[in-house]
Amino acid sequence: MTKSTEGVDDVWNDFHSAVNMTATQIEKWLDTDESKDVGQKSSEGAESVGHHSGRKIVAILHKKKADLSHADIEWMRKVVGYVKRHSAQRPDGDIENTPWRYSLMNWGNDPLKK
Questions:
Q1: Phi, psi at 46, each rounded to 5°
Q2: Integer angstrom CA distances of residue 62 from 12, 24, 25, 69, 106
Q3: pLDDT tens digit string along 60-99?
Q4: What is the DSSP string of 16-31?
Q5: Which of 5, 26, 27, 34 has a CA that sits 20 to 30 A from residue 60's CA?
Q6: How many Cα atoms within 13 Å fall on the side-chain side of residue 38?
Q7: In the chain, how many domains are there?
Q8: pLDDT tens figures, 33-56
Q9: DSSP secondary structure letters along 52-66
């Protein structure tokens, strides 16, 4: 097993735990103004990092584990790390309509979802 495919089962499981939205739910979310308004952008009007990530996550969710590329596996690791870090920064109070939640949803995680 090469370095690039090492721990694929763990990454696969961690990714599918972190991403608790379906590909369809993410696609629908990415079409909203709220999704497009949050996140870090390289320039005014550019797509945010999280919104771009959401599109990549949708593509990965449509793949079988055996069809993952090295780049997919690396992106899955990045998603898991982001969701863990960002989740730890949960603000106090009602989070339903917050940029914090919207950012996580761009990365495939809805913190209100059971």
A1: -75, 160
A2: 13, 10, 13, 13, 17
A3: 999 999 999 999 999 999 999 999 999 999 999 999 999 9
A4: HHH--S-HHHHHHHHT
A5: 34
A6: 20
A7: 1
A8: 999 988 888 888 888 888 999 999
A9: HHHHHHHHHHTS-GG
How far is 7 from 85, CA to CA, in rounded Å? 21
CB 28 within 8 A of CB 38: no
Asked whether the whole model's pTM tops 0.85, one would answer yes
Whether 6 is covered by a domain: the verdict is no
Rounded to the nearest 5 degrees, what angle is found at the Cα of 81, between the Cα atoms of 80 and 83? 65
Question: Which tokens go with 19?
Answer: 């991403």
Q: Is 8 within the bounds of a domain?
A: no
* One-letter amino acid for residue 73 of the chain: I
Q: Tokens 């969701």 sit at which residue? A: 83
Name the CA dihedral angle for 24, 95, 16, 88, rounded to a multiple of 10 degrees. 150
